[in-house]
TrEMBL record:
KW ATP-binding (keyword) present: yes
The species this protein was found in: Paralcaligenes ureilyticus
Catalytic EC class: ligase
Pfam families in the record: GATase (PF00117), GMP_synt_C (PF00958), NAD_synthase (PF02540)
Protein name from the UniProt record: GMP synthase [glutamine-hydrolyzing]
Family annotation (PANTHER family): GMP SYNTHASE [GLUTAMINE-HYDROLYZING] (PTHR11922:SF2), GMP SYNTHASE-RELATED (PTHR11922)
UniProt keyword annotations, A-Z: ATP-binding, Glutamine amidotransferase, GMP biosynthesis, Ligase, Nucleotide-binding, Purine biosynthesis
EC annotation from Swiss-Prot or TrEMBL: 6.3.5.2
Assembly with partners or alone: Homodimer.
InterPro entries for the chain: Class_I_gatase-like, GATASE, GMP_synth_C, GMP_synth_GATase, GMP_synthase, GMPS_ATP_PPase_dom, NAD/GMP_synthase, Rossmann-like_a/b/a_fold
GO CC annotation: cytosol
Lineage of source species: Bacteria, Pseudomonadati, Pseudomonadota, Betaproteobacteria, Burkholderiales
Gene assigned in the entry: guaA
Highest taxon listed in the record's lineage: Bacteria
Amino acid sequence: RILILDYGSQVTQLIARRVREAGVYCEIHPGDVDDAFIDDQPGLQGIILSGSHASAYSDDSMKVPAGVFKAGVPVLGICYGMQSMAMQLGGKVQWSDHREFGYAEVRARGHTRLLEGIEDFITTEGHGMLKVWMSHGDKVTKLPPGFKLMASTDSCPIAGMADEERGFYAVQFHPEVTHTIQGEAMLTRFVRNICGCTGDWNMPDYVSEAIERIRTQVGRDQVILGLSGGVDSSVAAALIHKAIGDQLTCVFVDHGLLRLNEAQQVMTTFADHFGMKVIHVDASAQFMGKLVGVADPEAKRKIIGKEFVEVFQVEAGKLSHARWLAQGTIYPDVIESAGAKTGKAAAIKSHHNVGGLPDTLNLKLLEPLRELFKDEVRKLGVALGLPPAMVYRHPFPGPGLGVRILGEVKHEYAELLRRADAIFIEELRKTVDPVSGKNWYDLTSQAFAVFLPVKSVGVMGDGRTYDYVVALRAVQTSDFMTADWAELPYSLLKKVSGRIINEVRGINRVTYDVSSKPPATIEWE
Ligand code: XMP
């Protein structure tokens, strides 16, 4: 078991992720825990000290507890962690207000168990070199007694140091980011070879540990959870239910803007199959009522978000014995909301999801997925027995079809859009790309139909039609911040368009959206 002490770096979670990928269990705790906490860590095999934005010199920076270096286990310091280690063990750190960021080539010096044989290339003089991601202002200028130089660059002569006798290692660069090509190999080597962890920890183990944590946290209390049918809230629900059974009540608010048969699928999976307590609130009439005459995208988003909270609050009020509000917050949400708090991100769209419930509920927060990345959440979902089709589903925005029906939302439009969208998704799933052997649903990151409330003229049989237009949107992206439109095969587009026009009476024209993000966004509103 590895303990990661967090000094406030944006990428601390990535350390945890790499350690988990190496098959080793780890926990992240605040960097200023006391020595008693370090002493009371049964089964502890190693400690990793994260980076930080703070200077190891500043008074308000968190100090590494002295107990870390007396715990008798190997310690790896990263960036700030390295500087703290150097300062506390008798080395010197030079303060600087000038930070160096980005790619660097580091020369691995001497033979250490951490770096030996790990290199990206070898220079003509025979030096092993590493391509790394550096980010430092302060730097270590004198090695602490007992340490030897492990890595260096021109601008940072002490970029890595080690005292192998005591099992202390430190690097100025960040092995946890993928830009450091051998970073994963280094972290794996630290936790497995140096700390001696076996590397057989896996998702089923995570499930049992997470269940234990939830049980300890909530005891005999009742918990409520807003279930949306999306991946995160579904996985959170399945996990919490496994931990505390009927102490969990899910509230599923159907705003009438869901995809075809979605409400039914949610109820079948969670209530029928898993036997969970799910309150299905059909609030579609209420939502539709509030949206009458509203065409502005931001106004629609705000109404749907506010209404959602109100409906949820009413249901939560009925469960007066509940003490906890469970949410499917995952790690990228944690980073995103931290970014939103600093006000750095421009408000392009006001996002709404079930995570955005207010503090006024007076409930304690239970967020069992807080430290996981999306792909880990999916693996967890599969391990919990959720249907893979649900777990590997494309994302669906909180306001649902409300932002896929342009302008005013009407029940009639939603009905047409649901059917067109279902045809598109069905054909994407059915059509396999011969080169990759995968179907086009899995080859795209998000795909859906958009309803355009304009009419165009068509001809069907002998008659003239004057009907609505649907646009198809399919994108490929790794982070949803930028996206390319997917080059779907023409034959697939032809099939989808033919089926929609023939099967969905009221739509006589289908277009394909060939805009990338930026400058377009993925959703149309
Ligand atoms: P855009 O349209 O901004 O979308 O390029 C990026 C991703 O975010 C999703 N999205 C939302 N998700 N609540 C959500 O939970 C929302 O209000 C919301 N709006 C957009 C969108 O589907 C895409 O995956």
